[in-house]
Amino acid sequence: MGVRMGVLALLWGSAFLWIELALDHGLTPGWITFVRCLLGAGVLLALAYAAGQRLPRDRRTWGRLAVAAFFCNALPFLLFGIGQQTVDSGVAGVLNATTPLWSLLIGVALGTERGFGAAKVAGLVLGFAGILLIFAPWSEDSGLMGVGALALLGASASYAVAFAYMARKLAGGGTAPMALSAAQLLAATALSAPAPLAVAAGGTGTVTWAGVGAVVVLGVFATGLTFHLNYRMIAEEGPTSAATVGYLLPVVSVALGALVLDEPLTVRVVAGMAVVLAGVALTRRGRRPAPPLPPRPADRSSAVAGP
């Protein structure tokens, strides 16, 4: 499990690095989103076909997939691209880890969250305190407050909305998980197709081969292959083991940002990351570990999400 978890964390956590490289080499957030969805869908379609899984055919499922694809893929992928134009990739990875906090808030608002005790309240307070520590709005030289930061938080909140919707509308629908996820990314590709034209600004103006290579790696490995590995871990070892990877993603993103992109590794950002992860861990206390069984279609642990 250790090797598989490490590979999955590295691939998934590196998504922020590839987004940053694509932006630095001429691609706009809209093009990154569209190509990423397209390539990720191609990988999952090939894997689903090889496994003998077929796409859903009824309009109702496709309609629900369109909603899931918007909140779980098209919108957050675009927001991460917009956010990383002004915020470092490492910080983006840390903010991505706040999704469970937003999920808990949504669960409380919808009345679906049970056992909302002192530990979860403390986790929420601690998690959002970590966000404040990272942004340091009281400091004039923090440089992190702005549209980019809001876009990154919006992306994480969008994932939480998607998970709540998918748990209600797509779980247990009868379609094989990988085929359902391939269909979801196909829908996301269609939804993000106008994005390159709508979000034309923001690139350097000249797309280089380095930028093309970065978005190809992002789509094929950090999106399509990553989901496949995540699905296999859920099926063979249970969603609890797979969820542990979520704690490693910000560590990977911060490390890669510092080592590859020479992003500043400040004490405040590292401390904020630790506080956020501690808060997330508290909100997950009391959850019963699930046995290693194949996941239900569109189970929130096997959804096509991520940075």
Can you give a write-up of this model?
The protein is 71% helix and 0% strand. The chain is mostly helical and 307 residues long. α3 (29-50) packs antiparallel against α9, α4 (59-83) packs across α9 (177-192) and α5 runs antiparallel to α13. The longest helix is centred in the C-terminal third of the chain and has 29 residues, at 209-237. The chain is globular, with a radius of gyration of 18 Å. Residues 289-302 have low confidence and may be disordered.
Describe the structure in brief.
By secondary structure, this protein is mainly alpha-helical. It has helices spanning 2-13, 15-24, 29-50, 59-83, 89-96, 99-110, 118-135, 147-169, 177-192, 195-198, 209-237, 239-243, 245-260, 267-283.
Number of DSSP helical runs = 14
Percent of residues in β-strands: under 5%
- What is the tally of beta strands? 0
Q: What order do the helices and strands follow?
A: HHHHHHHHHHHHHH
Arithmetic mean pLDDT: 85
Termini distance?
22 Å
Major sheet attributes: none
Instruction: Extract low-pLDDT stretches.
Output: 289-302
The percentage helix is: over 70%
**What is the 3D shape?**
globular
- Rg, Cα atoms, Å: 18 Å
Structural class: mainly alpha
List key phrases describing it.
307 residues, mainly alpha
List the helices and strands and how they pair.
Layout: H1 2-13, H2 15-24, H3 29-50, H4 59-83, H5 89-96, H6 99-110, H7 118-135, H8 147-169, H9 177-192, H10 195-198, H11 209-237, H12 239-243, H13 245-260, H14 267-283
